[in-house]
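COMPLEX REQUEST
Ligand: uracil
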Amino acid sequence: MKSKLRTYDIIKKKRDGYPLSREEIRYFISGVVSGDIADYQTSAFLMAVYLRGMNYEETTELTLAIRDSGEKADFSGVKGVRADKHSTGGVGDKTSLVVVPAVASLGLKCAKVSGRGLGHTGGTVDKLESVRGFDTGLGKKEFVDAVNDVGCAIIGQTAKIAPADKILYALRDVTATIDSLPLIASSIMGKKLAVGDDVIVLDVKTGSGAFMKTEEESVRLAEIMVEVGKRAGKKTSALVTDMDMPLGRAIGNAVEVKEAIETMKGKGDGRFLSLCAALSAEMLYSAGYGELKDCEKAFYKSINEGKALETFRKMIERQGGDGGVIDDYGKFPAAKFVREVKAQKTGYIYRIDAEKYGTAACVAGAGRTRAEDAIDFAAGIEIVKTVGEKVGMGETVAKIFSNDANALFEAERIVSSAIEYSESAPDEKPVVIKRIV
Ligand code: URA
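STATUS: Structure written out below.
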């Protein structure tokens, strides 16, 4: 029987500020995917949602409709509790490269489906592909077997998962409707729920390098996603974490994998390590591995005893990559050109604008501006001096790596403009701002 619903009426209802029913939302999303609803109508719908918002019921229904718009990843062959962490996107955010093997070394199963970088933010799949031979496109059986044997594996998202999100996201991108809380929450959670993990831990970034620039908006986004996850029957929690400055000391692909390895060797940046500890503890706690404090201790033990690193090596080798990169960084792609950025003042580094550093790394070749762009795995930034550290005028604050000599100058200009100096040391900002359960 043909539905009595009309696309026009649904747009009008939302435009006038009324909540939509489950049936209306399902009708709309299935029309978007089948092509029965035109892009101009979808765009009007998105703007109506942007301006009028959605309540929890509507956001949950939109999320579930996006989840159900394509294939579900059936990883039920994985034995044990499956946990995932998801970051809303940041600069220098290589946490998955440490957290996934660390929690896997402690018994959790991580069948991780990750994204690529877009805009000024990086993506785990691109980073891993900087390891020669690493295959992020394993078939389902190989993937499930790898997770059962090693404890973890990481692959890229296929177009078959949540296709509605792809269409909606592309239209949001050109209609100024990206930064809407229900649209972001349903986009992220629709894809996460299609993968079907038992435990979901969200790392909601806040600050200049994040989608959400203010703490208030980020906390709200985290609350909505946690509520939607729970309504969908999943154990879901979130940490709101700082992304006003870049995370750790490296931004790019090969440089970030190297930093993750150094961290697992116990030689990493303290702030980055503490974020990895908090996220790992949250995953273990949610999966029933004991009190948060004990879960955090277990994480540090895994790092100190080299278990996380050994699991990372096994994961690389199982996915066809050269595990020798762990012992010999010379096996990573190297950039032809390096440019040192010098401090323009004597004093303390007061602030580093994360978005600008992310943009500079992209300009050097580490990221893409369009989904089809190729990236330079060797390109990126090493942060020599970070927030709170003392510098003398003319001292090196950052090194930029690239295979494009011309790009280095523009990247250098952006890096220099991203640094603010002060006469006294700034207050230390915590990396974990709030926990939402
Ligand atoms: N990441 C997503 O997957 N979707 C959004 O809308 C924003 C960030």
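REMARKS: Residues 88-89, 184, 187-188, 211 surround uracil (CB under 6 Å). The mean pLDDT is 96.
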